[in-house]
């Protein structure tokens, strides 16, 4: 185990990840980082690939997911198939009952369409607060971020010290393309959401996700009614606590319904 501080360990691991495949990266992280490591899965295709790696490598990494209550039915099917195939439990984190009750009473069941502030409040209650509980006390956080998902994600790296959460954030498939992920899941018979084949490249909550058109960025189908400068749900923040945003394709208000 390392005696380095998290801020010292992050660049060392980041450099070490570059020469390894994703499973090797997970092993290196487990070897060098003491304490709990949590992989938060959105049940999307990258995260399903990582779930396969975590489950088959036997590294003692916890798998958690945020059940916002607004997921597609297909997401629950992938969740169940994954638990069955790998003989594991994906630990769910739900919104706080009082908070979600107050939110919906205040803004309505789909209030997020009408005000950016309402959308941020919904993401805050359904995602950001539960994520904080999922990561509480963890020293490592694994995500399925890929560099080519968006301009802003290209500026991230394999491993970063997320000081605001007091942990290392590791992105083991950061340098993989979507094609590499698709090839991996097909070769390993990993359960995936069938919506991916219908143009839903990045899948979040059902009312906030649409299929993308040919040529659109992968994440163009998320919160598509907002202008890009106001996007991101707040789950991925910089070291100093800022949410970094990126430019996106055209908004498509007609698809809002
Ligand atoms: S993605 Fe949409 S439904 Fe899900 S938490 Fe955010 S605003 Fe609410």
Features:
single chain; 257 residues; alpha/beta; Rossmann fold; six-stranded mixed beta sheet
Number of strands: 6
The figure for the number of domains is 1
Spatial ordering of strands, largest sheet: 3-2-1-4-6-5
Distance between the termini: 52 Å
CATH topology: Rossmann fold
What CATH architecture would you give?
A: 3-Layer(aba) Sandwich
Catalogue the ligands. iron/sulfur cluster
Largest sheet: 6 strands, mixed
Considering the protein shown, what is the CATH homologous superfamily? HUPs
Q: Which segments are poorly predicted (pLDDT under 50) over 5 or more consecutive residues? A: 238-257
* CA-based gyration radius: 18 Å
- Give the rounded overall mean pLDDT: 89
What's the number of helices? 8
Order of helices and strands: HHEHEHEHHEHEEH
* Residues in helices, as a percent range: 25-40%
The amount of beta strand, in percent, is 5-15%
Shape: globular
The CATH C-level class name: Alpha Beta
Class by alpha and beta content: alpha/beta
